[in-house]
Specification:
Elements (H helix, E strand, L loop, with lengths): L4 E9 L5 H11 L3 E13 L2 E7 L2 H14 L4 E4 L5 H13 L5 E3 L17 H8 L5 E2 L3 H8 L6 H13 L4 E4 L8 E7 L4 E7 L9 H14 L4 H17 L15 H5 L2
Parallel strand pairs: 1-2, 1-4, 4-5, 5-6, 6-7
Antiparallel strand pairs: 2-3, 7-8, 8-9
Helix pairs in contact: 1-7, 2-3, 3-4, 5-6, 7-8
Bound molecules: adenosine-5'-diphosphate (ADP) and (4-amino-2-methylpyrimidin-5-yl)methyl dihydrogen phosphate.
(4-amino-2-methylpyrimidin-5-yl)methyl dihydrogen phosphate binds next to strand 1 and helix 7.
Length: 266
């Protein structure tokens, strides 16, 4: 039996609900061997982000190189990349090693309002990273920032997905957590067709790390050989259970429950 391996290139969340920690928990639940390259250390909890400490380019490069010489990932994702230098380095390394199945979660602002990507880095993300992405998973504010559109309805989301696809992304998933509908609707555009997945919107404030967990589940599914469409369905099921069976940890925006998906199947 061969074990699928997935890599996350993202920031560390000391509170354990988002970033690298959410990604590795999700990989583990989906029977994928998880690896990480840390781009920044954050001091945060469910109440917010108190500190952001980007790693040196040398430290990031060395982590990625160590993985490359020994542990080729079957799929990988990016999360918090913080600045344009980190984005350029990460994109160059992914190209150099010809790694496939790249999921880009364009993390910009934490739920608590802290900036996790410098404004001036958005251009580098569009020019360097998006053209090599298999799947891009913006939430609505991120899709607005990347396209300049004001997204009010489903037609606007479709237009945003088309514009992002035109930048070279193979598949765009615009997440609906920030939408106003009764259901949380996630929209996939594969460059030709649209499809969407709906789930009842759960009334909870415990949504810290939802985007990280969703994109990590998609990455794990791609590592296990799923098609993008099937990986999208698994990601949606995984995050829905994780939000529904929340853990009530911390006094702010609590984390999701990474055990919930497997428990729901027992
Ligand atoms: N209250 C909710 N009820 C059900 N699903 C949700 C809820 N909030 C977010 N989701 C789902 O969680 C995932 C992440 O969504 P979103 O909140 O838009 O991203 P982010 O965490 O990046 O801001 C999506 O699949 C979205 O549909
Ligand atoms: C290191 C890191 N990466 C990503 C997020 C985004 O998660 P959220 O939008 O749920 O705060 C975060 N808060 N911290």
């Amino acid at each position: 039996m061969t074990t699928a391996k997935a890599l996350t290139i993202a920031g560390s969340d000391s509170g354990g609900g988002a970033g690298i920690q959410a990604d590795l928990k999700t990989f583990q639940e989906l029977k994928v061997f998880g690896m990480s390259a840390i781009t920044a250390v954050t001091a945060q909890n469910t109440l917010g982000v108190d500190g952001v400490y980007p790693m040196s380019l040398e430290a990031i490069e060395q982590q990625i190189e160590c993985i490359a010489v020994d542990l080729k990932p079957d799929a990988l994702k990016t999360g918090m990349l913080f600045n344009s230098e980190i984005i350029e380095l990460v994109a160059d390394k992914i190209k150099q090693y010809k790694w496939e199945n790249l999921v880009v979660d364009p993390v910009m602002i934490a739920k608590g309002g802290a900036n996790l990507l410098q404004k001036e880095a958005i251009d580098a993300m569009k020019k360097k990273l998006l053209p090599i992405a298999t799947v891009l998973t913006p939430n609505i504010p991120e899709a607005e920032e990347l396209t300049g559109l004001n997204i009010q309805n489903m037609e606007d989301r479709k237009e945003a997905a088309k514009r992002l696809s035109a930048l070279g992304v193979s598949n765009v998933i615009i997440k609906g957590g920030h939408g106003k509908e009764k259901e949380s609707v996630d929209l996939l555009y594969d460059g030709t067709c649209f499809s969407s997945l709906l789930a009842k919107r759960i009334p909870t404030k415990n949504t810290h790390g939802t985007g990280c967990t969703f994109s990590a589940a998609i990455t794990a599914a791609l590592a296990n050989g799923y098609s993008v469409k099937d990986a999208f369905q698994l990601g949606k099921d995984f995050i829905h259970q994780a939000i529904k069976m929340d853990l009530h940890i911390g006094s702010g925006h609590g984390p999701t429950n990474h055990w919930a998906y497997q428990e729901s199947k027992r």
